[in-house]
Design brief:
Elements: H1 2-5, H2 9-22, H3 27-57, H4 60-63, H5 70-103, H6 108-124, H7 132-141
Amino acid sequence: VIVEHDKHVDKALAEYDKAASLEPTNPACFFHCGRLHNDKYAAGAQKYEAAQKKVDAIPEADRTAADPKPEVKAAQDEAKAALTYVKSEAEAVVNCWARYVALAQPSETRNTVQGVVTGLYKFRNNQSEEGLQKLIDDNKASRTPVKMTPAPEAVNPPKPTVDSSAAATKP
């Protein structure tokens, strides 16, 4: 918590991972891990939106050219990298918070977290919730965390949204 307070998010995540490995049935470890990843997801989604706006502002002929100009390629690469980062953070949120939902007692916070998990799971699984309840149930039954397996990429994958930051801040 001190590391997190000092804004060393990656170090704080490593500490929460260590705590979760020592106490794999403590929902608080998974809540805080998910909260930090959710913050990273929200920041990444904003970065992606800004990068994609730059790409969208480029004339279509330039965007779809067989050999795009360096500045067009750079903008496209930036948007692609931002989207890859967002997808990674979405998966991290789902993995942490699916475990939290499985272990936590019913509460308003748990319901809020489950709503965010559902949205991010759908984002990573072609807008389908199929498999989410199994992931939660498997986490409930397992002594150790069970991670999601994202569906193959859709031809036109959904875009990330920033609104997942509405999640609670306390377990």
